[in-house]
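A favour, since you know our C-alpha cells better than I do. Just paste the record in under my message, thanks.
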Amino acid sequence: MESKKIEEIDKNFVIQSNGSERFTYFNIASETNEVNDIKTLFEISGFPWIKLNESTNSSTNNNSFCRLDVSSLHKLSQGVQHLAWCTSGGVVRFASNSDAIAVKVELTSKDDMSHMPRTGSAGIDLYVGKGKDKKFIKVAMPGSKQGEYEAVFEGINPKHELCEWTLNMPLYNGVKKLEIGLLPEAKLEKPAPYFIEKPIVFYGSSITQGGCASRPGNSYTHIICRWLDANMVNLGFSGNAKGEPEMAELISRIEMSAFVMDYDHNAPSIEHLQNTHESFFKVIRSNHPDLPVIFVSMPDFDRDAASNLRRGIIHKTYENAVIMGDKNVYFVDGESLFGSKDRDSCTVDGCHPNDLGFMRMAENIYPTVKKALNKL
C-alpha cells in the first residue's frame, strides 16, 4: 500500500500557512524589539518583568518572553533557568474587526514530547469574547520538530464586528518572536481591562505548567482565570518547583490578587517538603499580609504511597497559619481534584492530566479561588 501523510487523507489535519502576502504583521515582542505606539494596542500578560517602565520606556526583561526576572535567573537552578523561558500562561489580547488572524512564531526549541500533543507544547490557541464570555475558535498546529511556523485562522469574524481576541501562548516551548497578522484596513484597538487586573499567580510542578493539555487554553490555570476573567502568571516549572527561598523572594515581588501554591509534586522527599513548605509560605506572607493564599496538594493522589504524608505537611502549614489568626489561607485537598468516578481517565500517564483531568481540577479549585477573591 502506498504511504500517505495523514493531511493528504484528511484535510482537517492540514497546517494552514502562507498567509504572509495577505496580512499586515505586527511584531508583538522579541529579544530585540523596540517599543512603538502600535504595539501598545496588544496587551501582553503572564510575564511580570516584561512590563514597561512608563518613564524610561524600557523593561527589566527587554521585551523577551521570560516568566522570571532575567537578572535573577543565576540565583536559581539550571532547570528553572531553562524552564523560565517556556511561555506557559503567556497571553496576548487585542480588539479587531479582522475576519482572519495569522500568527508567525519562532520557538526557542524544536523539542517534542511523546506524551503531550504539540498543539499544547508548541501551539497557540485563539479565543474570542469579552470578560468571562470567551469562546475557543482554533488552535495553531505546528508540525513535528518545526522551530518556526505560521498559522492562519480564517473566517472567524464574517460580520466584521469589533471583537476582543485572546491568544494563549505555548505551554512548554518558549517563544523567541511572535508576530500577529491582521487583514489590511482592519481596526485595531486595546482590549477591555481584566475584571481582576492583578494576576492570580500559580506556583508548582509540570501539572501547573500545563503538562499534558492538548492546547494551552485547556490547562487548569487558564480555565480558572477564564471563568473569573482574571489576569494570570503561571510559574509552573516542570520537575523543578522545589520551594527554593530564592523563588519565594522573586514571587513575593509580584503584585497579585491571589497565590496558588501546589509544588509538592516536585519536592524530592517528604523531608524536603517538610523543610520548605511553611517557610516558603512565610516569605510570601511577610511581603503580602492580606493576600489570599490557596494551598493545593497533588491530584494523582492514588499514585504515590507518600501522598497522604505530603498532604499532611501542606495541611499543617494551613493549620498553623489559621492558629496564628491568618484569615486569608485556604486548603484544597488534591485527592478530590479528579473526582471519584473514572479517576483513571484523567491522566495521560498516571500523573499528568489530560483535558478531562484539567477540567476536573479547574472545577474543584475554582470555588475556593472565587471565595478567596470575593473576600477582598
Remarks:
- The chain has a mean pLDDT of 90.
